[in-house]
Each structure stands twice: as C-alpha cells, then as structure tokens.
Amino acid sequence: MKLAVLSPVAWRTPPRHYGPWEQMASNLTEGLVAAGLDVTLFATGDSITSATLKSVVEIGYEDQRGQDAKVLECLHISNLMEQADEFDLIHNHFDFLPLTYSGLIKTPLITTIHGFSSERIIPVYQKYNHRGHYVSISDANRHPDLDYLATVYNGLDTSNFSVNPEAGDYLLFFGRIHPDKGTSEAIQIALKSKRKLIIAGIIQDENYFNEKVKPFLSEDIEFIGSAGPEKRNELLRGAYALLHPINFDEPFGLSVAEAMLCGTPVIAFNRGSMPELIKHEETGFLVSNVEDAVNAVANTHSINRAYCAEWATQQFSKEKMVEDYLALYHQIL
User: Fold this and answer.
1) What does the pLDDT read at residue 7?
2) How far apart, in whole angstroms, are the C-alpha atoms of residue 110 and residue 183?
3) Which residues contact 259 (CB under 8 A, 6 or more apart)?
4) Tell me: domain 158-315, CATH 3.40.309.10, correct?
5) Cβ contact 239:171 at 8 Å
6) Domain ranges of the chain
7) Tell me, which fold does domain 2-155+317-332 have in CATH?
C-alpha cells in the first residue's frame, strides 16, 4: 500500500511548540512507517520524518510570518493532488480544502476532521459526504449533517512522557492563552485553592492576556510562555493536577491525554470531548464551574497516578491510533 499523508503548512511537522494537527499527522506518519508502510508525507520542507518528504513550501506561514497563507496552502495541496495517481490512498489532515479536488482524482481520500472553525465550512463537507471518508477525533465532535466512517482518538508517542508516581505541589495550565481555553478560570481556581499555578502556552489573544492574565501574575501565578516537548514532559509530570477549564466544546484536548500519560490527573469543565478523555474520579474530575474545580483540587490526592497513566496509554497511544487507521484503510480499499 502506497499512502500519502497531507499535513497542514501553518507549522512544521512535527511542530516545534504549538500545532496539534501537524503533531497528529506526524505521529500517524511515523507510526505507519514503523508498521512497514510506504508513506509519503506532504508537509513543509523543514519537517522531520522517516517517511518520504515532499514539499513546495519551505517554512510554515506561522513559523515565518509575512507569507500568504492561502497561496502556500493552494501550492501545497495541488502539489499532492497532481501526483494523486501514484498513491493507493490519501489521508487528509488539512481540513476541507483538499476535498474540493476529490472529484477530480481516482485515489480514495480519507479525512480526519480535527475540528470545525465555524458552521460556514459545513457545506463543503456536505458536498463530498458520500464521496469521501470522514473520521472524527471524538464522538462529541461529530456534526449531525455528516456521515462518519469511525471515531479514532488522537494517538501520542508514549515514549515522550514519563510517569511520576508522586504528585507535585503546583497546578498547571497548558494551552493557548485564549478565552476558549479558560486561562482566567484556571487562575481563579488556583487562587481559591491557595496553590501555585504555572501557565504555559502561546498567547493567541493579546487583549485577553493583558486584561485577564497579566494583572494576576506573581510568584504564585507564573507565566512561562510556550513549552517545547522536553519542557512539556517536565511540567506535566511535575504537576499536582492539570487545570482544563474550557469554555467551548473542545474536539479533543491533547494536553489532557498528555497529562494523564504522565500520571497527572486532569480537572476539566465537562464540555465537548472531556467525558471521553477523562474517567471521572479515576483519572481526573469533570466539573461544571470554578467552585466545583476547587473542590476537585482538594480531592485530587485520591487519584491513583499509576492507573491514570496506564489507562491513558491504552486509550491514546500512537500504536492504537495506527492500528485503528490501518483497519479503516483496508476497509476503504
């Protein structure tokens, strides 16, 4: 089987810091190569992979600002589609735009839908509903107007995470600094719990950071910016708990799975995919508001960190994701 994996070109594959879609395209590609498949990765030219790399975009438009995102995306996607007949299957991790080529090629296209930026993009998915093969990353993220082949949870390289059997003393917020992610709520939870909070992530909303985060920064509320892979493992495994007080229906939440792989429990607002990712009172707590989260912090000592890591490994490993996708590839072909 000759397989093409189409990654976005916002960031490098895998990303240096942020870039969840690129990270999943990388994890899947490396897992498929390890499983013995002939894989070509279409990504930025500075990407790192054991597969064959093809690129017409040297550096991602988020890694090097000033480039025209739409131009790079069109060049990138067309580069693959003009070579489509060289592959038995194309796995699209690049949202809806590649679907518009699917009626012009013979090669089957499977699309992992990582999320919906808005309802306005649904008509494109609907148009190719019966031609393409859609995979959701959680049952919660399925759109009622679309047909799905399966749900496959995001899979992580478990070797990048080490389990810490002992709970640390600080709370951790790990994610974009944006109202959706609930950075402000995490600060309130930490203050009410009288625990130190470390905030790690890229600032995606400057006004929100300046108004809701910056005024609270102190010795006990520390902002450290974005954290790369090595720092991520250190932060996650050293935390007492990860705070994930989201204000939107999140499709997945990589940091949630990553924390649990380190044995660190997660306290999350019960929205979106959270009930699929967290076993309530066994790997963390599903709560409704800040006060409930404060109570959960007080009870986090009851979580068995070894079990937390074991369960997360069974659910969210790269190997399981590859196995699930291979089954779908054979089903399609």
Assistant:
1) 98
2) 35
3) 172, 174, 236, 239, 242, 265, 266
4) no
5) yes
6) 2-155+317-332, 158-315
7) Rossmann fold (3.40.50)
In degrees rounded to 5, what are phi and psi of residue 53?
A: -105, 130
C-alpha dihedral (323, 310, 153, 159), degrees to nearest 10: -70
Structure confidence by residue, pLDDT tens digits, 289-302: 999 999 999 999 99
The residue count of the chain comes to 333
Q: Hey, do 2-155+317-332 and 158-315 end up sharing a CATH topology, with the first three levels equal?
A: yes
Q: Which of 12, 4, 54 is CA-nearest to residue 29?
A: 4
The per-residue pLDDT for 228 is: 80
Q: Where in 202-283 does DSSP place strands (E)?
A: 221-225, 239-244, 266-269
**Sheet with 197-200: strands ordered across:** 221-225, 197-200, 170-174, 239-244, 266-269, 284-287
Residues 39, 29: contact at Cβ < 8 Å? Answer: yes
Beta-strand relationship, 52-54 and 89-92: unpaired
- Which residue, chain included where needed, has tokens 């937390």? 308
Predicted TM-score (pTM) of this structure: 0.92
**Tokens representing 230?**
């090595």
- State the angle between helix axes of 318-332 and 20-34 in degrees (0 to 180), rounded to the nearest 10: 80
For residue 148, give both structure tokens: 């799905």
Rounded CA separation 54/80 (Å): 8
What is the widest separation between alpha-carbon atoms in the chain?
60
CA dist., res. 168 & res. 309, Å (int): 15
**CB 91, CB 102: distance < 8 Å:** no
10-residue averages of pLDDT along the chain (333 residues): 97 91 97 97 98 98 96 98 98 97 97 94 96 96 97 95 93 97 98 98 96 98 90 95 97 96 98 98 98 98 96 96 98 97
Say what the pLDDT of residue 18 is: 83
Whole-number Å distance between alpha carbons of 161 and 282: 20
